[in-house]
Amino acid sequence: DQQVKQNSPSLSVQEGRISILNCDYTNSMFDYFLWYKKYPAEGPTFLISISSIKDKNEDGRFTVFLNKSAKHLSLHIVPSQPGDSAVYFCAGSSGAGSYQLTFGKGTKLSVIP
Amino acid sequence: NAGVTQTPKFQVLKTGQSMTLQCAQDMNHNSMYWYRQDPGMGLRLIYYSASEGTTDKGEVPNGYNVSRLNKREFSLRLESAAPSQTSVYFCASKSSGKKETQYFGPGTRLLVL
Which pLDDT value is given to residue B95? Predict the structure, then answer.
């Protein structure tokens, strides 16, 4: 049973346009969500997070939106840059197990110059 | 600071061989984690250690053992490697508290023949 779902394995976007990456979750106990970015042959790096008490969090070009009633979150990147090309993982945390994270399968973003 | 380091970077094993993957962090983090990533899959938690002296199973613990040697080091052992354990292994660490993020190492690529 996948608790975190990223239904789009890949996404291509033109440079300068908006990238929207989506994530759905089923575990109602999740109260904190994170997005990680991963380049090939490197470990994931933290990008942005959001607490369940908020519906939006912004950091520069990156904004995460949370819709708790729909159990859906999305990551917006504006404007997209070629350096944003990477795999993006959505993760949820419930506080259980020392705040262990449950990851989605990832979405590969390609930003075309 | 080096952050989270992992050794080796790459390893080839024959079925039935044993090996230990090493992980160390220099951020004085309490919690440490071991994940595996397979093609088309997200990161799945193998084991974690909430604090020095404690370890707990994650989602996919079978075939693995761990040791939290001290606050800095958390090792993952494969006693009898199987081809199904071919994967990329990531170690991560985190401070206490919900909103602290996990920091990942660069990964160990393991091929079991």
Answer: 82
- pLDDT, residue A98, reads 61
Cβ-proximal residues to A48 (8 Å cutoff; 6+ apart), any chain: A34, A35, A57, A59, A62, A63, A64, A75
Pairing of strands A86-93, A101-103: antiparallel
- A1's CB contacts (< 8 A; 6+ apart) are A26
User: Rg of chain B's alpha carbons, rounded to an integer?
Assistant: 13
- E strand spans, A19-55: 19-25, 32-38, 45-51
Reported as a single tens digit per residue, the pLDDT across B77-108 is: 999 999 999 999 999 999 877 667 899 999 99
Chain A's closest residue to B31, CA to CA, is: A98
Q: Which residues are bridge partners to B13 per DSSP?
A: B112
Which one of A27, A42, A98 would you mutate to disrupt binding with B, by most B Cβ within 10 Å of its Cβ?
Answer: A98
* pLDDT, tens digit, 9 for 90 and up, residues A69-85: 999 999 999 999 999 99
Find the CB nearest B42 among A98, A99, A106: A106
In angstroms, the CA B110 to CA A49 distance is 30
Q: Which residue of A has its CA nearest to B4?
A: A43
Residue B107 with chain A: CB contacts under 8 Å = 41-43
